[in-house]
Amino acid sequence: MPQWLGRHKWLWLIAIVVIALLAFAACEDDEEEGKTPTDGETPAAEGPLKIGYLLDFTGALASFGPEEENAVKLAVKHINDAGGVLGEPVELARADSGTDKDIGVAEANRLVDIEKVHAIVGSLASGVTLAVAEGVTGPKNILQ
After folding, report:
1. What is the phi-psi region of residue 98: left when phi exceeds 0, alpha when psi lies from -120 to 50, beta otherwise?
2. 109: part of which helix (H) or strand (E)?
3. Along the chain (144 residues), what's the average pLDDT of each consecutive run of 10 residues?
4. Contact, 123 vs 97, CB < 8 A?
């Protein structure tokens, strides 16, 4: 045993016990019946999980759009075949960014405000993705 460990073994034991107690206290169950969400908390979603996919069916990356769409649909099929998410099916909403920042932001707004998606996948174009994150998903707390 190292010399520094042997001299302070009681101190180490106390430190480990204190850390364990703090860890258990931090893991306390916050769920209470009748508790309403406060600022910063989101209520549990009821109904299906709705995911928007913002892909490039027109524009410079249009040749990738159909294959990306097939991948998204296949993933959702596997999830739904396995019972969905929390027992609810996953639904999709389609949008075309056109590999253009302005179109991408407009379509992302449509997905969030009209289609009521919980998350957005895409776009393949990083410039569109950043514009959507800065203008839509970030300010509206939507997972992208």
Report:
1. left
2. helix 101-113
3. 56 57 51 50 69 95 93 94 93 96 97 96 92 96 94
4. yes
